Amino acid sequence: MDNEIDRDNEEGRRIEFSSHDEYIFSHCQNINNLINERKYDEARNDLILLLDFHKNNSLHYNALVNHLIRALGLYPYIQTDTADWHDRLIYDLFKVDVGLTNPITLHREQSLILKRLLSGEDLAISAPTSFGKSFIIDAFISLKKPNNVLIIVPTISLTDETRRRLHRKFSSEYKIITTADVELSEKNIFIFPQERAISYLEKIQSLDLFIIDEFYKASEKHDKDRAPALIKAMMKFTKLAKQRYYLAPNISEIINNPFTKGMEFVKIDFNTVFLEKHDLSEVIREDEDKKCAALLDILSKTQGKTLIYAGTYKNIEKISNLVLKTQPNNQPYILKEFSSWLKQNYDPNWKLAKLLEKGMGVHNGRLHRSISQLQIKLFEEKHGIKNIVSTSSIIEGVNTSAENVVIWQCKNGNSNLKDFAYKNIIGRSGRMFKHFIGKVYLLSAPPKEENNELALTIPESLVGEIDEIEYNNILTPEQISAIIRYKEEMYSILGHETFNKLLKEGAFKSNDYFLIRDIAFDIVQKPKEWENIIYLNSNTPEEWEHFLYKIINLQPAGWGGKHSRFVSYVKIASLNWKLSIPQILEKLSKLGITIDDFFELEKTLTFKLTSLLNDVNVLLNELIPYKNTDISPFIFKTSNAFLPSVAYQLEEYGLPRMLTKKISTTFNLNFESESLTLHETIDYLKVVDDIIDLSVAIDASLMEEYILDNFFEGVTYNK
Length: 719
Known about the structure:
Helix 15 links the parallel strand 13 (360-363) and strand 14 (387-390). The protein contains 30 helices and 19 strands. It has a seven-stranded parallel sheet. A six-stranded parallel sheet has the order 11-18-15-12-14-13, sandwiched between helices. A two-stranded antiparallel ribbon has the order 1-2. By secondary structure, the chain is α/β, with parallel strands linked by helices. 50% of the residues lie in helices and 10% in strands.
């Protein structure tokens, strides 16, 4: 009887496989014909669809499918247990060491780029989001073993993500440096946003490899705010670099410019996933009710993770309210714990905490880095966050992908979404080995397709940095005159030698040299008004007011509302280490400052105000040094959001300030000690965790255990 059942099952499988075989053979024929017609992109897309069919039906690849995978260069997809010896050989030949326990197989285009890098070429690469660019960098480091590598990334969030990946692989050989004031080792990997990179200029004597991730941000057309800083970094570090490697998606060509001079531009159209687009915009026509209904329908019917691109903060609010109103609270236990932890440690009425109970996260550039990191980690996990609603921060701040991408509105803040950014967003759908097909749902009409040429020009605000002789061929006569005039003004104020010395050291944090000039003029013309600026070093916040207003007025816009509001915030923020975040928020609420405002104001404090204070200080120390005007102690405080510097740095590493404070209390560890360093602290915490389990020692909640595990995962060498 059992044998009979087995025979029946076996026969059933034969019948089923027979239909599958016919379907597979037919598609293989079509793919082969496309290859013969040299329609490789079309053939690759059809092959990826066929692989998805295999996955959905739990089928192994036959020899023919494996052969087509090899023919189209998708070597990592080869199933060696069903492949013939030719295909198995290719699979093994394209294996490289990327710093993991076992080597991995690269696809054909990855291998070609790696080969060119290893031969010493300077490359500027345009490749799809799913290309697998990180493997090439890791393989280069593993094989070439350079002494110094600098990787510039767009944001601090991406800094930590890159640090975690490289720390796991290479921290036994290299010092991985992401923060300021770290002693260099014999072999170093520097990972910085463009602004932070400049501060290391004097410490880095030479670079074996200079990498810029998302180098299109050097164009003012694509990122007006970041372009000056990135251009500045390119000018400075190119002179130190033996080799350059720049990466970006969706660039059709690079217009001739001095910043990529000597680099070979390589455009790669090699998808490892297939994008399945569902354009609902014609039916919806920006009707809010129809759009809401469509989104809810997508969320109810789609499997896997969904990334919702909102376009604006206002739209995030709309989508959040819709989800809160319609979705059930039946979510994994870890999300309930995360929600409770946020309510306890931030705000009991925080919308993000309520959204997590619905299985949704929020990603934007305002949040504390540890909160953003945790959301992305939970989004990557099977039983974690199912949906994330985001601004453009998701495309520039992290390397994540989802099975589904929904475009709510084709906006980027107040501007219409450009074709370039649109392609970058939809490129987040699908993932090699996980989702062969990425599903894109357009609830808003996509932008008109453009020929995305990259033009890198000299921002006018960098006039002080430009050598008019070196860049003579791209400067207009008007620009040359402006540069000469500017330098003459600065020489008259600071002297030729001093001004050039400051430029060489990368002393100025601002990328607006006209602002630097105006500050210098103000100090020279009104020295008495600056003589008592040392009051900023006082421990009494009330004594800061006068000079905070004076400094803010140097750059009046962009302080989050009235200047009085920001000044009041700074005084309250000075209590960041003494008080809990709920206590800080309670004080801020009396000023009408919400939790979302709090995040934005802290960002303004640590970046904009600190940058401005730095440049004021540099000029004061040169122009009226005899008056004891050094405000470095105050700058140190603002740059760390009035937290101990190690506590602030640990937050970048995924350890929130309230947990650091808990650790400080439990172990009587003085984080305010000037002698305490980040790396010493991490080593100490690792030892404590090994001996007594840190989470037990501090009586951590389940969510805090999860946070600590995530933190230690990012500082552990796994090879």
